[in-house]
Design a protein that fits this description.
Length: 373
């Protein structure tokens, strides 16, 4: 079987057998058996799911990362290789990532003797959890590397092109949970209580002013309230109102500004109406931070291979690859999925025709990274 047909088959296997974050056992076994069959050296790190392999020998070491987990999404495609696991789907394209990195691994293996150092392949669990990147780092699997590369399939980059952007390409992600607390009362006697519902509502509307009035218009930011909950009937004013949501920013300063502004707003709106608010803030990954020399290399390799590249707009999704970049230099690239719906949609499907070109590109990128970085 030729490489293209083989990689499609691997992709389809992954797509048919999606597993959620930290449950990627069959996926890990499958990757392990492919690597073993190809004679690729497995590196021993204490990972429950996911694995690390190496090609070549000695210094320098550069790393290539794919994520391996799927989402709790019920698939609604009519693909012959649709998910066999009910309520689970590779709706983010990590199946494509795995097939492309396996392809790159096999191509690198063919020219192992010519490599000027070591390529470390990171099959990372639980990108969606998130936190898999930190689990991998805690095992020491990244120690000694000079740079790390990763990528994601997205529909908004034109088919056949690569999105290669310096600086942040995905956003810093925070989650907030606010509980406005007042005093419950009869719906007919609001003055006998402290109604949390109008206060939470005021906050929801005012929160949008943070993006439009506080953050620079040249700097992308998002505040989304995604979950509101208060009361359970028509004639009781409830004691509390819950407001949950997320913020997305592209830099450290904006991230701190949005957090500070949002918390101040919640506290002061609550106070103005005699209520209190409890704030739970959950920090997700920061924005990715693509290094200039890694980006220049990625562009040069694309040009040499005749693959057009664009500077994509940022993507306000989060990516735990950014944790690697807090410690190591690297670049996170965007690969076109072709014409499809957004990632995480139950009808999402990646362009299988792009798997082999992506694998070939990644193999060359790693080879050149060993020479040039
Ligand atoms: Zn995702
Ligand atoms: Zn993803």
């Amino acid at each position: 079987m030729n490489m293209e047909a083989y990689l499609k088959e691997e992709y389809e296997w992954f797509h048919t057998h999606p597993e959620l974050s930290y449950e990627e056992e069959a996926t890990t076994e499958h990757i392990r058996s492919v690597l073993k069959r190809a004679g690729v050296r497995l590196a021993e790190y204490p990972l429950k799911t996911g694995l690390v392999a190496e090609i070549g020998a000695g210094e320098p070491i550069v790393a290539l990362r794919t994520d391996i987990d799927a989402l709790p999404v019920e698939e609604h495609t009519d693909l012959p290789h649709a998910s066999k696991h009910k309520g689970k789907m590779h709706a983010c394209g990590h199946d494509f990532h795995m097939a492309a990195v396996l392809g790159a691994t096999l191509l690198l293996k063919e020219q192992e003797k010519k490599l000027r150092g070591t390529v470390r392949l990171i099959f990372q669990p639980a990108e969606e959890a998130p936190g898999g990147a930190r689990v991998v780092m805690d095992t020491g699997a990244l120690e000694g590397i000079r740079a790390i590369f990763g990528f994601h399939v997205v529909p908004f980059v034109e088919k056949g092109t690569l999105g290669i952007k310096e600086g942040a390409v995905t956003a810093g992600v925070d989650r907030f949970v606010l509980r406005f607390r007042g005093k419950g009362t009869h719906a007919a006697a609001p003055d006998a209580g402290l109604d949390a519902i109008p206060v939470a509502s005021e906050f929801v509307l005012a929160a949008q002013n943070i993006v439009s009035r506080r953050v620079s218009p040249f700097s992308p930011a998002v505040v989304s309230v995604t979950h509101l909950e208060a009361g359970n009937t028509w004639n009781v004013i409830p004691e509390t109102a819950l407001v949950e949501g997320t913020t997305r920013t592209m830099g450290r300063e904006d991230r701190a500004l949005v957090r500070e502004a949002l918390c101040t707003l919640a506290e002061h709106i609550a106070k103005a109406h005699g209520l209190t608010v409890e704030i739970d803030w959950h920090e997700g990954p920061p924005a990715t931070a693509n290094e200039t020399d890694c980006i220049a290399l990625a562009r040069r390799v694309a040009e040499r291979k005749g693959i057009p590249w664009v500077t994509p707009p940022g993507w306000m999704a989060g990516e735990d690859f950014a944790y690697y970049q807090e410690k190591y230099k690297g670049a996170f690239l965007l690969v076109s999925t072709g014409d499809t719906v957004a990632n995480h949609n139950p009808k999402f499907h990646a362009d299988e025709g792009a798997i082999l070109p992506t694998a070939e590109y990644l193999a060359e990128l790693m080879t050149e990274a060993l020479r040039e970085l």
